[in-house]
Design brief:
The complex is a heterodimer. By secondary structure, chain A is mostly helical. In chain A, 72% of the residues lie in helices and 0% in strands. Chain A has two domains: 2-67; 70-306, MetI-like (MetI-like fold, Orthogonal Bundle). Chain A is built from twelve helices and no strands. In chain A, α6 crosses α7 and α9 runs antiparallel to α12. Chain B has a single domain (2-252), classed as Rossmann fold (3-Layer(aba) Sandwich). Chain B is built from eleven helices and ten strands. Chain B is α/β, with parallel strands linked by helices. In chain B, β1 and β2 (25-36) form a beta hairpin. The chains are: A mainly alpha, B alpha/beta. The complex binds adenosine-5'-triphosphate and magnesium ion. Adenosine-5'-triphosphate sits between chains B (22, 27, 45, 47-53, 65, 67) and A (2-3, 6). Magnesium ion binds at residues 51-52, 178 of chain B.
Chain lengths: 308, 257
């Protein structure tokens, strides 16, 4: 506000204003060229990314599409490719999605609120903050090992849906916390001040003004991190999720498999048919992920009706 | 307003030896002043002299600036705002504030108005409250057909009047305004000035302004600040015609600042 203005005046030395600043034509042309070059460069990178994506998707569609039928969804996996389906994996993935979301969202968002709004500006808080950042960059297999030691062994949850979901919760928690923090941080101070100036207390400011304003950002982060959880394989393999499952889980203590594990399992078989089955399962996984990303976009649009 | 008339009025807000620091740096030096009920007080002075800092210490908005430290006393109706017993949330519901940049909530016009009263437990007729507040803020005519549109669809001047309406809806005793017209065109400024003259019958208003004509037009008392000190204060007419300090005269006549 006024503070920044103050610091500006006096600092900028405009020099001798009488002599007209001369920018010669050559430099102008050069600047224009750089502008254009950068534009082309950006165009090139997006083109490269798109082509890679298209090639991958087309390849997968070509090998997998013909295997997708109703039976593919209603059959369990099988030793015979013609009879193999993804029923157990789909159910497992949906269970994991639901459980992970219901653990990670309340935990992550609350932690973000605490860190942004309530935590004292002390050294230990900074230390926690740095470590959350570090955790977000940790290879996912490490979370698998933690999950194995803590949930599977120590708490004796065995290879259950609960153990798997809690492991994935740990995995995405740092991402949810950080993205929610960013969303909360982006809420302008002026909005908080407006609320406080009307006699609101902290709780009311945080829950009735800051959180709703941050919601689109929080939702985006949440959905993107949950779609990451849905695509994870390594940590679940480490905690011992099964790859050959011929039943659908009925409660959180059941053993389970998920789509990425099913894909991994089929892809590592020698027969070509199973590779095509894997491609088919990838298509389903991709559809699921696309759906979640669209949901993220939709929710963001919906709650951004009043732009900040 | 004549000096004798405002002399009879009771003091509603008073500071005694008020000092404000930002970290090590002192922004307000031992300011003592009194504002009488039902008057408009103008705070003037060059940029960076501490007007906003001072204003924000009157309803404890400085609580949100981590580095800000206040010492000294502010009395509101005899109650010390900085005593341990004082509840800043309660204080702010009685001493409202309008900011330099309009800052409506990202909600509808209607919800902007009722938010404050609602969270403070108001249970009366909301529609009536909205209409009354918007009428007092001279905005009703322009928005009555679109109360449920986003407040962000309004122009800057309309947004500022909405912020004033929102403050009025709380029925505060005192309204603090920090350069409420600085982002507005002459017409909106005019509307807000008219509004202030209208409002002062019910409320006490303390306004920061860089516009000398404005201070002269709307205020009863003027306070001239310089580098954190209160240099001169008194009846606006006096300050503008026969200031007793040379610096005040220089500032008002535009020779520095
Ligand atoms: N948050 C802050 N931290 C540190 N110093 C600050 C802060 N806010 C204001 N100051 C300093 O305190 C002094 C008074 O600032 P203040 O904003 O009260 O001035 P002002 O009179 O309102 O100026 P303007 O007319 O430009 O709005 C200035 O020197 C400013 O740099
Ligand atoms: Mg200011």
């Amino acid at each position: 506000m006024s503070k920044t203005n103050d610091s500006l005046t006096g600092v900028i030395n405009l020099g001798n204003l009488d002599s007209k600043p001369s920018i010669d034509a050559k430099r102008k042309a050069k600047r224009k060229m750089y502008d254009k070059l950068f534009y082309r460069f950006c165009q090139g990178t997006i083109f490269f990314a798109l082509v890679t994506l298209v090639v991958l998707v087309v390849h997968i569609l070509m090998s997998g599409l013909s295997w997708i039928s109703l039976d593919f969804f209603t059959n369990f996996t099988s030793r015979f490719a013609e009879r193999a389906g993804i029923k157990a994996a789909i159910f497992g993935s949906l269970w994991v999605l639901f459980l992970t979301a219901s653990f990670a969202i309340p935990l992550g968002v609350s932690a973000a609120i605490f860190l942004e709004e309530y935590a004292p500006k002390k050294l230990w808080v900074q230390w926690v903050q740095i470590n959350i950042g570090n955790l977000a960059g940790m290879p996912s297999i490490v979370y698998g090992l933690v999950g194995l030691a803590v949930f599977v062994r120590y708490f004796n949850f065995e290879r259950s849906l609960l153990a798997g979901s809690l492991t994935l919760t740990l995995l995405i928690l740092p991402i949810i916390i950080i993205s929610s923090q960013e969303a909360i941080k982006a809420v302008p101070l002026s909005l908080r001040e407006a609320a406080y100036a009307l006699g609101a207390n902290k709780w009311q400011v945080v829950f009735l003004q800051v959180l709703p304003a941050a919601l689109p950002g929080i939702l985006t982060g949440v959905i993107l991190s949950i779609s990451r959880a849905i695509g994870e394989t390594a940590p679940l393999i480490v905690i011992g999720a099964l790859s050959f499952v011929a039943f659908t889980p009925t409660n959180i203590w059941d053993e389970f498999t998920v789509l990425p594990i099913q894909i991994y399992n089929w892809a590592s078989k020698p027969q070509a048919e199973f590779h095509e089955l894997a491609a088919a399962a990838i298509i389903i996984l991709l559809v699921l992920l696309f759906a979640m990303n669209f949901l993220a976009i939709y929710l963001r649009q919906k709650y951004q009706r009043y732009k900040l | 307003m004549s000096a004798s008339l405002s002399e009879n009025k009771e003091v509603i807000l008073e500071t005694k030896d008020l000092n404000v620091f930002y970290g090590e740096k002192q922004a307000i030096h031992s300011i003592s002043m009194q504002v009488k009920k039902g008057t408009v007080a103008a705070l003037i002075g060059p940029s960076g002299c501490g007007k906003s800092t001072f204003l924000r210490s009157l309803n404890r908005m400085n609580d949100f600036v981590a580095s800000a430290k206040v010492n000294g006393d502010v009395f509101y109706k005899g109650q010390n705002l900085y005593s341990k017993k004082a509840d800043p949330v309660e204080i702010r519901s009685q001493i409202g504030m309008v900011f330099q940049k309009p800052n409506p909530f990202p909600k509808s016009i209607y919800k902007n108005i009722i938010w404050g009263p609602k969270i403070n437990g108001f249970t009366g007729d909301m529609d009536l409250l909205v209409e009354k507040s918007l009428k007092r803020a001279a905005l009703w005519g322009e928005v009555k057909d679109r109360l449920h549109d986003s407040a962000f669809d309004l122009s800057g001047g309309q947004q500022q009047r909405l912020c004033i309406a929102r403050t009025i809806a709380m029925n505060p005793d005192v309204i603090l305004m920090d350069e409420p017209c600085s982002a507005l065109d002459p017409r909106s400024t005019q509307a807000i000035e008219d509004l202030i003259s209208e409002l002062k019958r019910r409320y006490t208003i303390i306004i920061v302004t860089h516009n000398m004509q404005q201070a002269g037009r709307i205020s009863d008392e003027t306070y001239f600040f310089h580098e954190g000190h209160l240099i001169e204060s008194g009846d606006t007419k006096m300050i503008f015609t026969k200031p007793s300090v040379q610096m005040t005269e220089d500032y008002i006549t535009g020779r520095f600042g």
